[in-house]
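Hi R.,

Here are the chain sequences for the assembly we discussed:
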Amino acid sequence: MASSCGCWVRDFLCSSIGRKTVMAATGLALFGFIVGHLAGNLQAFIPDHGATMKQYADMLHSKPALLWGARIGLLVLLLVHVVTAVSLAIANRAARPVPYQAKAWREASYASRTMMVSGPLILFYVVYHLLHFTTGHAHPDFQAGDPYRNLVIGFSNPLVAIVYIAAMAMLTAHLAHGLWSVAQTLGINHPKYTATLRRLSVLIALLIGAGYISVPVAVLARILK
Amino acid sequence: MKITLHVWRQKGPSDAGRMATYHHEAHADMSFLEMLDTLNEGLTLKGEEPVAFDSDCREGICGMCGIVINGIPHGPRKSTTTCQLHMREFKDGDHITLEPFRAAAFPIVRDLAVDRAAFDRVIQDGGFVSVNTGSCQDANCIPVPKKASDLAMDAAQCIGCGACVASCPNASAMLFVSAKVSHLGLLPQGQPERGDRALRMVHRMDAEGFGNCTNTRECEASCPKDIGVEFIARMNRDFTLSSALERQEKAGGGGG
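And here is the predicted structure of the full complex:
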C-alpha cells in the first residue's frame, strides 16, 4: 500500500475516501439533530401561547445528564465535521495551485460548489444562535425556561429575523447538496433510485428550510405573538 | 472564420506562465487541433515559439489530447475529446480561451502540454490482473454475467485523458480511479486483487496530490467517454469494505 503505516483505522481516516466518509456520517447525524430541532420549533404554532413548547423545554431540561450528554455529543459531531472539512478544503486548494483564467460549469450546482461558503456561514450563525436563544447573552429580554416568549421577542426585531432567515437559506442550500452527497459518499448510487434520491434531497432541504423560516415569518406577520 | 485565441503560454514547469492573444483565420471544417496546427505554422514562419499541446491518435481513443477550452475540458461539445472537436462548433468572431488541464498532480510541461504520469503510477499500483503463464486456458471457461460485462465495459471506456481532474473544482481524480477500480473489480478475472486494488489505487491517488471529491458531478459531465459517478460510489464501497475487511498478508506467501 502506498501510504501504509500498519494501522488500518489511521490509513482509512487519513485517506480521501475515509475523510469523506467522516463528513457523510457526521453530516447525517447533524441532519438528525436539525430534524429534531425543527420538530421542537414547530410547536410554536400550537395555539396555547407556548405552553406545549415550555413543557417540551422543561422535559429536555429535566435530565441534565442526558441534556449535557446530547450537547457534548453534538459539539463533538460539529467539531469533527468542521475540522475534517477544513482538512479536505486545504488539500483541495493545494491540488490546484494555479486557478483557471476562465472556468465554466456544465453540471456542478451552485449549492455543490459553495459548501465551503454555506458551511462556515451556518457555523457563525450557530454561535450567535446559541448566544441568542440558549444562553440569552445576545437577547434583549431573555427569560430562561420560556422559549416561546424568547422567540417572539427575539424575532420581533426584523433585522434578527432576516439574519435568521438568511442563515436558514444557507442551511437549505447546504442540505440540498449535502443529503444526496451523504448517499453518494457512502456508496449508495444506483440507476434505479439515484435520480429520485437527488430530487428527494432538494425537496427535504426545501421543506426543512421552509419549516424553520416559517417561525420568524409568523412572528413578523403577527401570527405568533 | 476570424477567431481570437487567448492561449496560456508557459515556457516550462517552473515558469509562472501568462495568457497571450492571437488573431487567427480558421476554417469551419478544420478540427480544433488542425486549427492549432495552422496557428503554429504561422508562429513558426514568424520566428515565434509554437504553442505546445498534447495530441496523438486524433481519433478520440488514445487519451493524449486535452485542452480546457472556454473553461471546459475538451470544449463545448459533450462526450467529445479535443481532437474530435471541430471549428464549426464556434462562430466567426469568437473569443476562445485555451488553458492546460490544471492540477498540482499534472505538472505543466510547456504551454498546454501537461505531464499525466501520476495516472500511470495509479495504474501501476493496482490496475492489473494476475494471469498465469503457460498455455492459455479455454476461451469462455470463466462465465462472465452479461450485466457485469456491460458495466465493466462502460468503466473500461476511460481513456485516462484527465478531463475529470481538469473539470473538478478540487482537481480530484476519483472518476478516473473509480473507473479503473471498477472495470477490473466487476469481472471474475479481477476478483483476486479486488480488495487490495481499491486500497492501493486510492492511497496512490491521495499520495499523488489529487484533491477530494465533493460530489459536484462536474467530472461525469466533462468525461468524453460518459463515465458516471456511479463508479465513484462503487469505489467508495470497495475501499471502505476493504479497509475494514482486508487481511494483512502473511509472510511466506501462498502454497507451493
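Chain B touches chain A through 56 residues (CB under 8 Å). Chain B has two domains: 2-110, 116-255.

Let me know if anything looks off.

Best,
T.
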